[in-house]
Design a protein that fits this description.
50% of the residues lie in helices and 16% in strands. It is an alpha/beta fold. It has one domain (2-116, 165-214): 3-Layer(aba) Sandwich (Rossmann fold), CATH 3.40.50.300. Bound molecules: zinc ion (ZN).
Length: 222
């Protein structure tokens, strides 16, 4: 099976993808993490992506589609995967559909995490990420804003460049104008499940699992 997690910046796609990935042994494919990793390593892709991401702009479709083509292996197709951060434009969604057709990939669902923009901006500007394990934390809930409570790395928490306040408004606007139309595209293509993304992490995860059961992608007894 595959799951496409869809939603505005900050709605918790990464967090939920990690939970699902662990619970159902699905590969978590985060285009954001892949890009940030490439930036860190200074690869050709990283150098290209770096400037674009710093300004909160979308990385061009051809780069993103290339990443997806390279990232989804035969094994992922067999065991299942979660897409987090892709597709972000209708062209990317169309490219993904052709990819699915070519590789004969079936049995997927689009999970939409919904939330209002003001709540998300508040949430994003209060979050930090771990340089080592890519976990995301809310600074309001951390006792120690330097060290990672997940992997234990020291002084590994930082505010992502694209989470800074001046960048967020730009990202939200791009989401409304460029990414939201992907949903209308999918409404006509695939099962789409909408979930309230402002609930607790546990409740959102529970609702996603219910949606996967309803779509008959996992057994009702899980
Ligand atoms: Zn960590």
């Amino acid at each position: 099976m595959f799951v496409i997690l869809f939603g505005a910046p900050g709605v918790g796609k990464g967090t939920q993808a990690k939970i699902l990935s662990t619970k159902f042994n699905l590969r978590h494919i985060s285009t954001g993490d892949i890009l940030r990793e490439a930036v860190k390593k200074g690869t050709v892709l990283g150098i290209k992506a770096s400037e674009i991401m710093k300004s909160g702009q979308l990385v061009p479709d051809d780069i993103m589609i290339g990443i997806i083509n390279e990232s989804i292996s035969d094994r992922d197709i067999e065991t299942g995967f979660i897409l987090d951060g892709f597709p972000r434009t209708v062209s990317q969604a169309e490219a993904l559909e052709s990819f699915f057709t070519e590789r004969n990939i079936t049995g997927g669902v689009i999970i939409v995490l919904e939330a209002n923009e003001d709540a998300l901006i508040q949430r994003i500007t209060h979050r930090v990420a771990c340089k080592e394990c890519n976990s995301i934390f809310n600074t309001d809930l951390l006792n120690d804003v330097n060290n990672c409570p997940e992997c234990g790395a020291v002084k590994s928490l930082y505010q992502r460049q694209d989470d800074k306040e001046e960048i967020i408004n730009n990202r939200m606007e791009i989401f409304r104008e460029t990414t939201l139309p992907v949903l209308s595209y999918y409404n006509e293509q695939r099962p789409v499940c909408k979930i309230n993304g402002l609930q607790t992490i546990e409740k959102v995860a529970e609702d996603i699992i219910t949606a996967l059961k309803d779509a008959k992608l996992i057994p009702a007894t899980v």
